């Protein structure tokens, strides 16, 4: 089962394949074509009086802009739907993160789509683009970034700063996540908010991040850390938001295996003196 579908199922959400995002993108294309036509047609009536060829020149300019926009949107849609690494892929992620998402949020609002639905869709689309880039990294360049709310609320241990302070009592998944990070030799950190998360990223300089968080924090994290790719895994919130949250460990592990260079636990990797 693809990592994406499994993630959505495991979180108990409606499977989000980025459908709302793609639909809004298609709507944008129609708005673009309609807008260009209106912009061309209105002056057309008057422009021909200035010079008979001016309406044609203007129409060609608009056609070029529309074709460029449509070409970009269609390439993006095919990338999302097929999950293939198309030639503009790396730039596509930047366009989605920087320009399209804020635009689609406004459009989605007008259409009554909830912000969290759009964020889930955005995360799903981002994940597809990150997977399409299929960047393989060395273990030390992969960072697992966790939210503080995963820690058991009565735990007296301070794990921000150094997650290895965890006493592995097993009352929350931090114990298992530390074990997973050791198994694969990847970095792992806990952030209490966006500022700390940014600081961790600056310090560790990862080439790829597997981020666990809610819709809002994952969305802002993906935007803040661009161009570093972030593979987002939504946390589970059986006790409500920001309190004793949970995560699907298998999803985290499969994410690690997807992005690691040799995709093997540390003890199975050949050592420096191996043949
Ligand atoms: S597993 Fe670690 S972080 Fe979680 S409650 Fe126990 S000591 Fe605290």
Can you offer a commentary on this structure?
It is a single chain. A four-stranded parallel β-sheet has the order 2-1-3-4, with helices on both faces. Helix 6 links the parallel strand 1 and strand 2 (187-191). The protein is built from nine helices and four strands. The protein has two domains: 3-131, no CATH class; 135-266, no CATH class. The protein has 275 residues and is an alpha/beta fold. The chain binds iron/sulfur cluster. Iron/sulfur cluster is lined by residues 151-152, 155, 157, 159, 166-172, 174-175.
Describe how the helices and strands are arranged.
Layout: H1 3-10, H2 19-50, H3 54-82, H4 89-110, H5 115-133, E1 142-147, H6 174-184, E2 187-191, H7 194-204, E3 208-213, H8 215-225, E4 230-234, H9 249-259
Parallel strand pairs: 1-2, 1-3, 3-4
Helix pairs in contact: 2-3, 2-4, 4-5, 5-8, 6-9, 7-8
Residues 151-152, 155, 157, 159, 166-172, 174-175 line the site of iron/sulfur cluster (SF4).
Q: Low-confidence parts lasting 5 or more residues at pLDDT below 50?
A: 1-15, 271-275
Distance between the termini: 35 Å
Shape: elongated
The whole-number mean of residue pLDDT values reads 83
- Total strand segments: 4
Derived from helix and strand composition plus strand pairing, the structural class reads alpha/beta
Q: How many helical elements?
A: 9
Helix fraction by DSSP (H/I, runs of at least 4): 55-70%
Strand content: 5-15%
Tell me the number of structural domains. 2
Taking the sheet with the most strands, its summary is: 4 strands, parallel
Which cofactors or ions or other ligands sit in this model? iron/sulfur cluster
| Strand order in the sheet with the most strands | 2-1-3-4
Order of helices and strands: HHHHHEHEHEHEH
What Rg is obtained from the alpha carbons, in whole angstroms? 23 Å
């Amino acid at each position: 089962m693809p990592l994406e579908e499994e993630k959505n199922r495991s979180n108990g959400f409606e499977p989000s394949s980025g459908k709302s995002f793609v639909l809004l993108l298609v709507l944008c294309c129609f708005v673009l074509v309609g807008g260009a036509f209106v912009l061309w047609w209105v002056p057309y009536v008057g422009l021909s009086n200035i010079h008979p060829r001016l309406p044609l020149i203007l129409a060609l300019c608009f056609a070029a802009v529309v074709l460029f926009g449509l070409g970009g949107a269609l390439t993006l849609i095919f990338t999302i739907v097929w999950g293939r690494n198309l030639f503009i892929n790396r730039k596509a992620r930047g366009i989605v993160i920087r320009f399209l998402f804020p635009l689609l949020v406004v459009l989605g609002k007008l259409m009554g789509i909830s912000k969290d639905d759009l964020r889930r869709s955005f995360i799903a689309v981002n994940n597809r683009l990150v997977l399409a880039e299929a960047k393989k990294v060395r273990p030390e360049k992969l960072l697992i970034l966790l939210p503080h709310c995963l820690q058991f609320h009565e735990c007296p241990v301070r794990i921000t700063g150094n997650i290895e302070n965890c006493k592995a009592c097993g009352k929350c998944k931090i114990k298992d996540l530390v074990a997973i990070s050791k198994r694969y030799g990847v970095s792992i950190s806990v952030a209490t908010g966006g500022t700390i998360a940014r600081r961790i990223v600056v310090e560790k300089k990862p080439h790829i991040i597997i981020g666990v968080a809610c819709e809002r924090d994952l969305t802002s994290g993906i935007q803040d850390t661009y161009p570093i790719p972030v593979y987002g895994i939504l946390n589970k919130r059986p006790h409500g938001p920001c309190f004793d949250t949970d995560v699907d460990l298998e999803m985290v592990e499969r994410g690690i295996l997807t992005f690691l260079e040799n995709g093997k636990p540390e003890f199975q990797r050949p050592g420096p003196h191996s043949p």
